[in-house]
Amino acid sequence: MQKGTIGVTTDNIFPIIKKFLYSDHEIFLREVVSNAVDATQKLKTLSSVGEFKGELGTLDVRVTIDKEAGTLTISDRGVGMTADEIDRYINQIAFSGAEEFVEKYKNDANAIIGHFGLGFYSTFMVSKKVEIRTLSFREGAKAVQWSCDGTPSFEMTEIEKADRGTDIILYIDDENKEFLESARVETLLRKYCRFLPVPIIFGKEQEWKDGKYVDTDTDKVINDLTPAWTRKPTDLTDDDYREFYREICPGADEPLFWIHLNVDYPFNLTGILYFPKIKSNLDLNRYKIQLYCNQVYVTDSVEGVVPDFLMLLQGVIDSPDIPLNVSRSYLQSDANVKKISTYITKKVADRLQEIFNNDRKQFEEKWNDIKLFIEYGMLSDEKFYERAAKFALLQDTDNKFFTFEEYKNMIAGEQTDKDGNLIYLYATDKTAQYSYIEAATARGYDVLLMDGQLDSHYIGMLEQKFEKCRFVRVDSDVIDNLIRKENNREVTLTAQEREAMTTVFKSQIPAIEKSEFMVMFEALGETSAPVMITQSEYMRRMKEMAAVQPGMSFYGELPDTFNLIVNTDHPLCKQVLADTDAACADAVAPILSQLDGVNAEIARLNNARKDKKEDEIPVADKEALRSAENEAADLRKKQEGVYSDYAQNNNLVKQLIDLALLSNNMLRGEALSRFVKRSFDML
Ligand code: ADP
Ligand code: MG
């Protein structure tokens, strides 16, 4: 028998393993099972190159629980180890700067295990004693037993062992009894080992007999040895891909598309990514991309490895080149990982381009399900934008789809304004903005539908990317101004008429919560609507941004500002103007002449103080100016009073305003019922 001390430079690694690695205890099972699989695979390789000439026999890995003995045993029929090899691979572990590192990553068992190559030693997280019983495949090798009770000293003795391979026997400690429960162990095996390439056997298949489940003679194999991603794409049918999806995402809807990743230079990566059909936000976090390393499950947090915008995809990535056992921040700065992320982005773009080229109809049908990914990708990744710009679609309110290029060519003729800007008209709500969409299409314009979650950001980006273009929402101005062409008609109102009409209309707009109206005049021709409501593109975007960005709450608190556009060409508006003038002229005339006098006085006083400093102006003059200004304000108010009193009884004005509100879906509640009643009265 040999006794010795495990070769660590720190006094004792076991307290460290036990003390610090409290979070991820369960991964010890992954580590021992994958060691068993490695040993098995090595033997297969040696056999295939002729270095091992014996019988391979069955090469299962068996996991067994002995509750009485309190042990969990992992047995394989792989290469085994000689005493010499145990000494080299188990006893001598390089372990410098340990404490410092462990302190830093104490919550991340993966990082520690990876850093020190401590896969095997992770068993001490859950065991008070560990035994290795092993017989090497080498001719004439002697079986050995190594055992260690959680101190740095171990014992090694020769033993009798009939069969080649290794048993790792874990004497589970009192705090970790859960790992002696077969349900718990099976769950873990299914989590970490379900796609390992060597059969992992845990207990027996069961059958229903005489009112209960009983074991059959058949071994229960936990894993699928050749999961779809490890097979050649040419050997797989669509059904195979769908079936694999059901295996990893049980209960999810059929995936929309999938992408088989397969690269071996400059790094090794395989996998299958699925575009899921997302029904609600609840689905978003249900299944994630799982990361494997040679078919061993590692994690489902793939930040860094997969670009952010593809985190919503599902499926599997397998790469021995991703440094799995390191911390997240390291992962994100690793050059290899960056390359992998870039590669995945490119593959996803290529695949989408391929579907677009081969089956545009299918692509269009699924566009609304995938557009979130694509828009997010284009917003967040310049390279992806460049690729996706060739297949990203724009959908119009007529449900037709166009590429950027196709759309640009289609609207270039009609929708270029007098300055040569291409105007992209869009709607965010087909129902609410119906009348504007209709007016625009009647004019020969096309209107895009931009009702997606990211569309307001997306529009901002497209405006930057496309040359000489602007996106304008259909209801942001009257049709003539949406796309300004040459020779728009002039509004021919005098200042006095403007004032009169402004007051007449403004005074009759019903109060709408958090909304303000500005009365504006446009000469839009006799056939356009007499009164319309628009909202400036600029103000609306500011408010939309304020809603999602902190620090811009100033805009968010402002009321919505709408424009009430009065079409001065329309006969009804002309009539309002004429009626107002006829009805109010007598009452307004004396006010106006008084106002003229006061204004002249104000002008005189202002003129007198023009070149004087504040303290050189006589107090009396200051007083006079203030009172003249007050008087002017009063007169204007009086004048407004005349107009609004008149408008109060002008049903035509009220009706025109209400109709405009109505077609904008803004006439509600009391205002709506007053409108209905007034309409009946007028009939
Ligand atoms: P790693 O697997 O990263 O090499 P481990 O700590 O998990 O690190 O294992 C250390 C070494 O012990 C392995 O490289 C292998 O040589 C040996 N080993 C562990 N388990 C077995 C086993 N079941 N059969 C044969 N050799 C094993
Ligand atoms: Mg290992």
Characterise this structure:
There is one protein chain. This protein is an alpha+beta fold. Helix content is 42%, strand content 19%. It has 4 domains: 220 residues, Histidine kinase-like ATPase, C-terminal domain (Heat Shock Protein 90, 2-Layer Sandwich); 141 residues, Ribosomal Protein S5, domain 2 (2-Layer Sandwich), CATH 3.30.230; 91 residues, Rossmann fold; 188 residues, no CATH class. It has a 9-stranded mixed beta sheet with strand order 1-6-5-4-7-3-2-8-9, covered by helices on one side. The protein has a 5-stranded mixed beta sheet with strand order 10-11-14-12-13, sandwiched between helices. The chain has a 3-stranded parallel beta sheet with strand order 18-17-19. The model has no long low-confidence stretch (mean pLDDT 88). The structure holds adenosine-5'-diphosphate and magnesium ion. The site of adenosine-5'-diphosphate has 16 residues, from helix 2 and helix 3.
What would you say about this model in short?
With 683 residues, this protein is of the alpha+beta class.
Name the helicity range: 40-55%
- The CATH topology of the largest domain, please? Heat Shock Protein 90
| Percentage of residues in DSSP E strands | 15-25%
- Structural domains: how many: 4
Q: Number of helical runs?
A: 22
| Small molecules bound in the structure, each named once | adenosine-5'-diphosphate, magnesium ion
Describe the sheet with the most strands.
9 strands, mixed
How far apart are the termini?
113 Å
Fourth CATH level, the homologous superfamily of the largest domain: Histidine kinase-like ATPase, C-terminal domain
Top-tier CATH class of the largest domain: Alpha Beta
Alpha-carbon Rg, integer: 39 Å
